[in-house]
């Protein structure tokens, strides 16, 4: 019987045993047949398909589950329109057939049968919810294990959307049904032993789809902590130790033991960052679970404490289990310590760390000890310090007991740990300030320093307690502000007694004097003094810091200080110590005596400083004291630190002592001897300091080599005692100092580290990283200071030294001064070149007024000779300098020539112009920044020289100028004919144009001497035909030319422009080539779009040259060239792309020419722009056929730089531009066919146009224009109707950033508020709406609590696609808060801009009366006022918008996803306070009633802050 003819035959054939035909094809044919009548056909066929799938097995490849046709047919049957009816009969079938095993096997084989995925996903989506209630444990686990095992087996596998959907639905089923699975403890143990590390690696894969990553992470958390069994597994006490609170090394339960074993077996890098997330999941589950923690822990736990106790138990298990490690191991444990830090951060932020609890206190105390021990290791030090800081903020008493140990360890930490140390010390100081216990902190510092061993003296001196500027500043402020008057006498006495006792223990004075010093029988020192000498040195430095910070003294501490002064400074103790130092026989004695001398010197410096503030006695200048210090400087075995301090003491006494009133610069004076000794030491080791590039951090205790001493002495002399050198140093020493400065400023051969390019003058030298600097850095910083150049004697000595050193250049060659290569062959220049270049580099810092009239010509001629020497030396095959260094050195010398030259003198030097011209084009390919700057400086010199040459052609000295011009006439100009000529030919071509431009710019034709005219005419007649040939070649064959040909075409076009200017200068109205530039436009268009010429950056330069040529021809051709000018502008604008320099040259060229346009030309241009605007708004005009951005940029230039008398046309163009913006739909976001990049670029051009017009032409704005501007900005700021596509800004470098667009909008409003106050007042409703939209644009995604710094890259939250849509629909289309591109997000600086806008409302300005407001026959007084009072009615709406943005509509508890983050709100505080001041108390209640409960609480805090800071005075 034919099954297609009756239902009975169909059923028999389908369920029979006949295998001659494919039953799946029969079933599909029956389902699709419209002639087969079968009651309940869908249920019958679906039942057969499900039965086939269940009975067919799943192991073989021929089973029905591996056949896509079965799944496809079932998918077609169960996806009708009526889902409710389908579920009714489908549920009946599924009650008889268990399809879940088939699902499980198919999921496992999904990757091997990709054709099954699509229909299976449909079936899985419909049937899984119906069959889930009777799902087996194996199926539930398969839903989790299948995706996890598949992703683990292939780390590079990225699932497609269908596979992602199937796995995600299975993971959701696992999340819902895992609570009903039996034997969950065994499953959790298996997961911990075998799969947890793989799971941790998978969920951290950045390429995984967001929804799958979230589902996998959720499934793991549910498995571990989502059930009571999981919580019991994590909470149960260890078998061998029921109580963990009393054990110093707590035992671990099975959960943490398994976790630790997995980490040790498979590595910890992937799993450890997840522990903070585990802690959060665990505590969340404890909150939801009714689990009795008291019964588990065998102690009473109040209900309000159950979560805290559980969190502490979990924290203790993590710290003692998977995060425990031995500090003696050599493995890097940074990630382990950072995870411990992440756990503590999470505990503190969630409020779970309560040190009143006994268990918590034990855990925290154990962690304090562990963190202190961790400070010894470099890899965990920073994290350990952050942990200690967190605990310190939580409970000061716990850390205070261990503070001495912490300070001892902190004292010697390296500079790399200073940021973490500063944070801890700042927190410690803040607590002491609050409790007024600064004295206790200083006592702790004293105990720490006196226990320092001798081998750690340098480390402690360079550690954070002494070398950190941030800590020193905070300590000084804390002592000055929070040390109480009653504590000052005790502190001063303690420090002085400690000093005396350490002095005695160091056995520095005679025993008889020691007995007199110690007045008390009790000792204030601790018993663990490691080395009295080291303790004395460190204590003296601390005492100096404390004494200088004490705010006031009464009689008791004054007497103590007076006694200290009398005992140590009035007596000859220093002289005795120096004598004992000279006769010391052992190293220990020498060190002890030197420490005593340093202590006396520090004490004297302190007393000298205190005498100016408190009126303490000041020790007068003492010749014996100076003689003793000079003896110290003469010693060979003296310590470097003492050498530096002794020299500083002598120089400081000379600069501050009132007894030294008459300067003494004789060599025999004590200061002269000191300066000579210091210079001797510097000169002895300066070569080593230069060759090693020795750097120093400024710490006098760290001077490990003589090279470091050189840097320290140079820094001391130039940075602190220039005044002493100026008035007391002998002339001989100043000459030596000048030579030393030049030597230190030399650029090392083979190193370009210090070879800096100078532009308009000199730039200050950069300082090395981490506070390190070398001697050359000190010299350059000194040269850049104004104080140095006010020292007349030093300045004269330096100039004299430079003149002496540069005189050696005269020996390079006889006159003329330009040497040739043959003469240079016999000159030894390797050492002298660097020295001479250093001289000219130094002179770039010289103020021009300090060059004498006689020195300038000599330095100029020597500079020219030196430049030629460098040029020839750098081009030799085997030379001691590279081409890069030669370029940098020539740039330095020519920059000096450009700054100081007298053009009239320069042109008289034989051969100098020819030398500059011949070397002007010698640049490397590709040219570097130094090459381009050298070329610019060279032509700047040539331009000035040619200007002097042109000016002299009108005076009596014309005979001396004629030979120079004749050289150009006689020169071979055939290089013009070669379009692909070399660099030298290009330089000669540019110099010719520069020469003719100089005559056109600086002279008038009738004033020039007739003989010079003849020469110029001959030169022009020789050049112009050659340029004509070059232009013809360019017009005919540009597509076949190379990049060199394009460069040659640029020069030809520039030369032709110069030729036109020269003809106009002569008064010659004939032109050989009419509208040449217009003929170049088609060629330029092909060049800009062609390849490979279109990829050549020189094409942009060619475009600028053609554009300038068009502007030049416009002066003679009238209106016919204007259209070509506009077309050329738009062509170059479209080609420039991200090259802002090209766009700037384009605008500047048009602006310069525009001011000379007559009114009729300007009106024609306005008409053409209006035509462009009308065409862009035409309905039939294709989108993008007209570059509106280029038209807006062109209109901006035409409006801002409009000629005089064209106000009517300018105002009309402003109106046309604003109307076009209003009609453009792309300002509101991309629609069909528009790209995000094009829309944001057009929007930025439109907003930039409005910004420039408002700033430059605000007087042209009327009421209607301001209304249009507000409408345009409203369109730009309004949320989009559809979401923009994902943007990859890296591929579009020119795309403006959201921050730039936001800044431009706020600048527009600020300018209108300041310049058009009255116009803004008439548009307050629109202005208020814009303020609200600007506020709304600053929203960011609400930060969901998640792992902190210990998470190492784990995302805190991931938004689904639907959530992203919800967020983006509340933001402007150009702000992509949820994207990965930082360029399209707003940040704190944008909030600062909005704050400026709000603050501008309170700025008082002069208003401008509107015509409708003027009284007939009267003029209203133009008074100074602000918009604050008149805006008060509207300020309420802005305040409400601010409050609702932060809380009401977008609060997390209200289901919102965005808010204003804390940093943004902090920036807006000042502006919000001003708004509160505008509304006053009258409207405050109305605002309060308009808010929800959350908004009211925030408004109260905002208003309280306003009340706290508002001005309540009467002035």
Main attributes of the structure:
1515 residues, single chain, two-stranded antiparallel ribbon, 65% helix, two-stranded antiparallel sheet, globular, mainly alpha
Short account of what is shown:
The protein is mainly α.
Give an overview of the whole structure:
The structure is a single chain. With 1515 residues, the protein is mainly alpha-helical. The strands form two sheets. It has a two-stranded antiparallel sheet with strand order 1-4. Strands 2-3 form a two-stranded antiparallel sheet. Mean pLDDT is 79; it is low at 240-248, 514-522, 658-662, 749-769, 1285-1293, 1343-1358, 1409-1419 and 1449-1455. The chain is 65% helix and 1% strand.
Helical coverage, percent range: 55-70%
Please indicate the percent range of residues in DSSP E strands (runs of 2 or more). Answer: under 5%
From the N-terminal CA to the C-terminal CA, the straight-line distance is: 110 Å
Count of extended strands: 4
Contiguous low-pLDDT stretches (5 residues minimum) are 240-248, 514-522, 658-662, 749-769, 1285-1293, 1343-1358, 1409-1419, 1449-1455
* Strand-pairing-aware structural class: mainly alpha
Query: How many helices in DSSP terms?
Result: 69
How can the largest sheet be summarized?
Answer: 2 strands, antiparallel
Q: Strand order within the widest sheet?
A: 1-4
Give the overall shape, derived from the CA principal axes: globular
Query: What is the gyration radius calculated from CA atoms?
Result: 43 Å
- Average per-residue pLDDT, rounded, comes to 79
């Amino acid at each position: 019987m034919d099954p297609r003819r009756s239902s009975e035959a169909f059923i028999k054939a389908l369920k029979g045993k006949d295998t001659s035909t494919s039953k799946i094809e029969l079933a599909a044919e029956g389902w699709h047949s419209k002639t087969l009548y079968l009651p309940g056909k869908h249920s019958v066929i679906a039942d057969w398909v499900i039965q086939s799938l269940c009975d067919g097995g799943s192991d073989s490849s021929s089973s029905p589950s591996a056949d896509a046709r079965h799944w496809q047919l079932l998918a077609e049957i169960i996806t009708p329109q009526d889902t409710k009816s389908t579920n009714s009969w489908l549920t009946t079938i599924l009650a008889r057939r268990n399809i879940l095993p088939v699902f499980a096997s198919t999921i496992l084989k999904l990757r091997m049968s990709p054709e099954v995925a699509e229909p299976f996903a449909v079936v899985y989506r419909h049937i899984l919810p119906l069959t889930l209630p009777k799902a087996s444990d194996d199926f539930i686990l398969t839903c989790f294990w299948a995706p996890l095992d598949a992703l683990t087996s292939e780390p590079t596998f990225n699932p497609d959307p269908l596979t992602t959907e199937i796995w995600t639905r299975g993971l959701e089923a696992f999340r819902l049904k895992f609570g009903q699975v039996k034997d969950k403890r065994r499953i959790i143990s298996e997961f911990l032993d075998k799969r947890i590390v793989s799971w941790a690696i998978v969920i951290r894969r950045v390429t995984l789809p967001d929804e799958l990553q979230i589902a996998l992470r959720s499934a793991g958390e549910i498995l571990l902590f989502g059930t009571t069994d999981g919580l019991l597994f994590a909470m149960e006490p260890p078998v061998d130790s029921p109580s963990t609170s009393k054990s110093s090394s707590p035992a671990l339960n099975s959960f943490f033991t398994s976790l630790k074993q997995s980490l040790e077996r498979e590595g910890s890098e992937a799993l450890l960052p997840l522990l903070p997330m585990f802690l959060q999941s665990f505590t969340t589950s404890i909150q939801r679970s009714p689990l009795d923690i008291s019964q588990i822990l065998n102690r009473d736990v109040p209900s309000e404490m159950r979560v805290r106790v559980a969190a502490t138990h979990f924290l203790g298990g993590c710290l003692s289990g998977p995060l425990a490690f031995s500090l003696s191991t050599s493995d890097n444990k940074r990630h382990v310590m950072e995870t411990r830090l992440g756990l503590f951060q999470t505990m503190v932020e969630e409020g779970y760390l309560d040190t009143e609890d006994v268990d918590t206190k034990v855990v925290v105390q154990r962690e304090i000890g562990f963190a202190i021990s961790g400070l010894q290791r470099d890899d965990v030090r920073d994290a350990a310090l952050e942990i200690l800081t967190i605990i310190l903020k939580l409970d000061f008493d716990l850390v205070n007991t261990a503070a001495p140990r912490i300070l001892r360890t902190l004292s010697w930490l390296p500079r790399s740990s200073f940021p973490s140390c500063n944070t801890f010390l700042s927190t410690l100081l803040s607590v002491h300030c609050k409790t007024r216990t600064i004295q206790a902190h200083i006592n702790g510092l004293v105990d720490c320093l006196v226990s320092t061993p001798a081998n750690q003296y340098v480390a402690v001196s360079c550690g954070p307690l002494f070398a950190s500027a941030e800590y020193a500043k905070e300590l000084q402020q804390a002592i000055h502000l929070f040390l109480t008057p009653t504590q000052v006498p005790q502190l001063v006495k303690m420090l002085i007694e400690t000093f005396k006792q350490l002095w005695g223990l160091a056995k520095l004075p005679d025993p008889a004097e020691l007995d007199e010093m110690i007045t008390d029988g009790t000792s204030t020192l601790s018993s663990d003094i490691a080395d009295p000498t080291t303790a004395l040195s460190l204590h003296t430095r601390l005492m100096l810091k404390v004494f200088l910070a004490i705010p006031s003294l009464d009689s008791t501490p004054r007497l103590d200080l007076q006694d200290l002064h009398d005992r140590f400074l009035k007596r000859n103790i220093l002289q005795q110590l120096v004598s004992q130092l000279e006769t010391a026989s052992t190293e220990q004695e020498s060190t002890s005596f030197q420490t005593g001398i340093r202590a006396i010197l520090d004490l004297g410096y302190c007393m000298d400083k205190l005498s100016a503030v408190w009126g303490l006695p000041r020790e007068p200048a003492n010749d014996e004291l100076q003689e003793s210090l000079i003896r110290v400087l003469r010693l060979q075995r003296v310590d470097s630190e003492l050498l530096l301090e002794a020299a500083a003491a002598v120089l400081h006494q000379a600069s501050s002592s009132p007894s030294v009133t008459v300067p003494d610069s004789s060599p025999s004076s004590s200061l002269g001897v000191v300066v000579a000794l210091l210079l001797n030491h510097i000169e002895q080791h300066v070569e080593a300091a230069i060759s090693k590039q020795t750097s120093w951090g400024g710490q006098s205790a760290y001077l490990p080599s003589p090279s470091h001493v050189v840097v320290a002495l140079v820094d001391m002399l130039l940075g602190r005692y220039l005044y002493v050198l100026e008035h007391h140093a002998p002339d001989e020493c100043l000459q030596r100092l000048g030579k030393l400065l030049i030597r230190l400023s030399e650029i090392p051969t083979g190193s370009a580290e210090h070879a800096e390019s100078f532009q308009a003058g000199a730039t200050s030298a950069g300082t090395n990283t981490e506070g390190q600097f070398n001697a050359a850095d000190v010299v350059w910083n000194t040269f850049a200071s104004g104080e140095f150049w006010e020292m007349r004697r030093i300045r004269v000595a330096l100039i004299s030294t430079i003149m002496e050193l540069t005189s050696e250049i005269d020996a390079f060659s006889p006159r003329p001064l330009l040497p040739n290569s043959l003469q240079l062959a016999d000159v030894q220049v390797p050492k002298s070149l660097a020295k001479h270049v250093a001289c000219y580099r130094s002179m770039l810092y010289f103020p021009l007024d300090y060059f004498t009239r006689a020195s300038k010509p000599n330095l100029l001629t020597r500079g020219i000779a030196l430049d030629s020497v460098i040029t020839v030396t750098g081009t030799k095959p085997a030379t001691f300098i590279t081409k890069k260094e030669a370029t940098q050195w020539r740039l330095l010398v020519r920059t000096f020539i450009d700054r100081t030259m007298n053009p009239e003198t320069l042109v008289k030097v034989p051969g100098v112009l020819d030398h500059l011209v011949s070397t002007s084009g010698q640049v490397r390919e590709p040219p570097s920044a130094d090459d381009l700057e050298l070329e610019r400086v060279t032509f700047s010199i040539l331009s000035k020289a040619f200007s002097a040459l042109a000016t002299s052609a009108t005076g009596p000295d014309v005979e001396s100028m004629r030979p120079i011009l004749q050289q150009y006439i006689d020169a071979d100009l055939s290089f013009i004919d070669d379009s692909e000529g070399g660099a030298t030919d290009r330089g000669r071509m540019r110099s010719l144009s520069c020469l003719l431009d100089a005559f056109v710019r600086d002279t008038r034709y009738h004033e020039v001497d007739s003989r010079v005219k003849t020469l110029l005419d001959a030169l022009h007649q020789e050049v112009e035909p050659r340029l004509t040939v070059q232009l013809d070649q360019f017009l005919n064959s540009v597509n076949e030319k190379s990049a060199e040909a394009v460069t040659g075409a640029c020069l030809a076009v520039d030369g032709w422009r110069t030729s036109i200017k020269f003809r106009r200068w002569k008064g010659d109205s004939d032109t050989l080539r009419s509208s040449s530039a217009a003929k170049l436009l088609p060629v330029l268009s092909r060049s800009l779009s062609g390849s490979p010429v279109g990829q050549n950056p020189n094409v942009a330069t060619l475009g600028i040259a053609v554009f300038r040529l068009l502007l030049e021809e416009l002066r003679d051709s009238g209106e016919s060239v204007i259209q070509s000018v506009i077309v050329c502008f738009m062509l170059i604008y479209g080609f420039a792309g991200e090259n802002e320099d090209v766009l700037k040259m384009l605008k500047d060229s048009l602006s310069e020419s525009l001011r000379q346009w007559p009114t009729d030309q300007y009106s024609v241009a306005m008409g053409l722009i209006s035509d462009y605007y009308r065409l862009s708004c035409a309905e039939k005009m294709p989108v993008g056929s007209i570059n509106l951005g280029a038209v807006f940029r062109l209109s901006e230039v035409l409006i801002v730089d409009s000629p005089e008398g064209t106000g009517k046309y300018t105002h009309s163009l402003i109106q046309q531009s604003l109307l076009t913006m209003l009609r453009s739909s792309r300002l509101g976001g991309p629609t069909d066919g528009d790209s995000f990049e094009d829309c944001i670029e057009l929007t930025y051009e439109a907003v930039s146009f409005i910004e420039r017009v408002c700033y430059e032409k605000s007087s042209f704005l009327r009421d209607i224009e301001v209304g249009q501007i507000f409408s345009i900005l409203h369109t730009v700021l309004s949320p989009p109707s559809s979401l923009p596509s994902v943007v990859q800004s890296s591929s579009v470098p020119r795309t403006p950033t959201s921050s730039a667009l936001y800044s431009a909008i706020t600048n527009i409003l600020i300018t209108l508020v300041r310049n058009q106050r009255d116009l803004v007042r008439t548009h307050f409703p629109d202005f208020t709406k814009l303020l609200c939209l600007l506020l709304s644009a600053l929203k960011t995604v609400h930060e969901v609590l998640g792992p902190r710094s210990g998470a190492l890259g784990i995302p805190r939250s991931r938004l689904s696609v639907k959530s992203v849509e919800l967020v983006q629909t509340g933001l402007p289309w150009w702000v992509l808060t949820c994207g990965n591109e930082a360029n399209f997000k707003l940040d704190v600086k944008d909030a600062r801009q909005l704050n400026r806008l709000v603050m501008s409302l309170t700025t008082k300005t002069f208003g401008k009366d509107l015509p409708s407001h003027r009284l007939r026959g009267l003029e209203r007084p133009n008074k100074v006022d602000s918009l604050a009072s008149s805006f008060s009615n509207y300020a309420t709406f802005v305040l409400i918008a601010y409050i609702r943005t932060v809380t009401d509509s977008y609060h997390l508890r209200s289901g919102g996803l965005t808010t204003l983050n804390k940093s943004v709100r902090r920036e807006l505080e000042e502006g919000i306070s001003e708004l509160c001041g505008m509304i006053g108390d009258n409207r405050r209640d109305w605002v309060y009633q308009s808010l929800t409960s959350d908004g009211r609480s925030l408004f109260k805090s905002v208003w309280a802050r306003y009340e706290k800071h508002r001005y309540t005075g009467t002035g």
